[in-house]
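Example record for the data management plan.
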Amino acid sequence: MASKKFAKNNTKKVVDWVKKWRIKNPEKANHYSRECARRRRLECLYHYGGKVPRCVCCGENEINFLVLDHKNNDGAKHRKLVGTGTSMFLWVKRNNFPNMFQVLCHNCNMAKGFYGICPHKKR
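Corresponding structural encoding:
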């Protein structure tokens, strides 16, 4: 708890220390960044997809194939505001997981984007 209090009261010192550490330890810094991004992505997928996240369209459950989809097809506009990838997942978490997302696989997401509807929905 003392370290959180110190960080809160000494933001500039902490930021400077982190910058220096990242320069001295680029491999570790990259590893931590990737791991943090991975955890954030998984947290979002599990929030919207439940215990076993799966595509709401086709049922695909391979976690590496799953993405967050903007339900209202306003993803391009939203990404311009908040960014993509890690930035998007951070925004989702900071905004208490708004009900504007769903889990889709890459195929269904791309089909929805290109054709307006996934071929699975046409059947």
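Summary line stored alongside the record: Helices lie at 2-9, 11-24, 26-49, 75-82, 86-94, 106-115, 119-122.
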